[in-house]
Amino acid sequence: MADEDQAGGTAAPWCVSHDVATASRAMGAILAVLASLILAANVPVAIVLLCHIHRSGSKGLCFVLNLALADAMVGFAVMGVAADELSQPFYPSQNFCVLRMAFVTSSCAASILSLILVACDRHLAIRKPFHYLQLVTALRVGLCLLGLWLLAAVLGFLPVFIPRFQRVSNHWKCSFFNVFHPSYMLTLFCLGFFPALFLFFYLYCDMLKVAWGHERHIQQVKPAGLAGGGPAARAAMRTVAALIGCFTASWLPFFIASVVQMLCPECFPYRLIENFLWLLGLGNSLLNPLLYSYWQRDVQLQLSQLAAALRRRVLLHLGHGRCFPGRDTKALPAVSCLELQD
């Protein structure tokens, strides 16, 4: 009988489960690497921004710090999913999967909402430069951040509060479409992502409009022989294009495919959305520190000082106190460029 099944081309169940477990472990390894990169990129930025905010008292950087913390939470949440994938065969309960994926969803929602707050802060600084310090107070910043995390928690844990957004599945894997009903993805798209994307577009396009207006004014007041090609406006356009392009390319394919999947189940397979498009969205948390933090000179200086301090500690530890700086060498006082600017 076994020979007939083999001749008929029917695969043995243990072969199928072995292939599925191997693919799951490979996916877990990819998620673990991605989560590690996200944490490694955002945790140092969060530390540096926290020190700089404590030193300078800048309120606007609190939104960038919150973005780094939200992205770090995304990496932490994805690390849990990676651990589940690497632990196959793993048979979690329905409640465990719902809470696991709700935590991932709320972390991603907090990251996206943090991008909107950063855009609002920059838009306010450009549109109301003389009233910015009066408008952006510590109380208002705290209320905005509190509202952000409450909204992210509500969006992420909505299936916990509304059971009809859950999908009862006997599948062994914790994933979006095994846990959440497609109507929940449609709700997220209509109430969360689409308004955020529209507001993101509007804010940065309006900032670009202001930059072009300033550039035209500068060109008009310049002497005729000094008229240039507007490098500041071109730089602003490149920056806006990079910010909008990365955000849109990261998350829009996932949400569009999820909505289309609900209307046409045969159009997009679940594996394409969960194994590729979702990874593309998670990559946005890896790009955010590069786009919003690492290009700032203050952050670069603080990171270089932090790396130098860690290097000295490692050398001292490896040399048992005999490495640089020497025992008879007096340490020179280090003065930060940020202190010189203050």
UniProtKB/TrEMBL annotation:
Listed GO MF terms: G protein-coupled receptor activity
A cellular-component GO term for this protein: plasma membrane
Source superkingdom: Eukaryota
Lipid biosynthesis is among the record's keywords: no
Localization in the cell: Cell membrane
Topology relative to the membrane: Multi-pass membrane protein
Ranges for domain G-protein coupled receptors family 1 profile: 41-292
Name this protein carries in UniProt: G protein-coupled receptor 119
Organism: Ficedula albicollis (Collared flycatcher)
Lineage: Eukaryota, Metazoa, Chordata, Craniata, Vertebrata
